[in-house]
Amino acid sequence: MSAFRDAISEAAGLIVRADADFLEIVALSAQVTGLAVLIACLIGFPLGALLAVGRFRGRGALSVLVNAAMGLPPVVVGLALYMLFSRAGPLGVLGLLYTPTAMVIAQVVLVTPIVAALTRQVVADLDAEFSETLRALRATRAQAMTTLLWEARPALVTAALAGLGRAMAEVGAVMIVGGNIDHLTRVMTTAIALETSRGELSLALALGLVLLTASLVINGALMGLRQRIGEPAHG
Length: 235
Prior knowledge:
By secondary structure, this protein is an all-alpha fold. The protein has a single domain, classed as MetI-like fold, CATH 1.10.3720.10. Helix content is 77%, strand content 0%. It is built from ten helices and no strands. Helix 7 packs antiparallel against helix 10. The protein is globular, with a radius of gyration of 21 Å.
């Protein structure tokens, strides 16, 4: 028990004195995850709206693909990107493997289907409500998508927060393509896995506390938004 008490005490010390290595890992995690979620939203919002109101060949198949991609195993995504970015792979010349850029791409692949699927459902519901009005105004398909996305703003924030929660918890894919290199590609989840395996619990506990706090904040924000837009406030 004394060893655990010491680890907890050391973890608190890392946070209180703003340890440089600790802050570096947290900062890189925030940069990678924030950029990945931003890109995922820029892709997922219009893609979801297109799937909701668009009429084109292959729409059903694309919807199925997006829904299926929500359950992609992270390690499989990491393996596929590793093969793509390795020196022998088709994009090996770009030198992206074991860089933060590769980690961002891995998270974008995992988060975009979540954002797109949630957006599609929200926009489809709004389209059913406002379709007659939009037709009366002779709105084009692009105008309808833009209008419905604007009306769906609170729900889109919910989708973005859901994607953020997914990205923050990711470890498998980013470890494979990032390599968990100290001072270069080490983020909170991969650092926790490494430090725990080494028996160095203080840093792992400090980072775990940050992740737990962030998770609570995200879930609290999700519940608040769901209550605001009239959805069930659970989960």
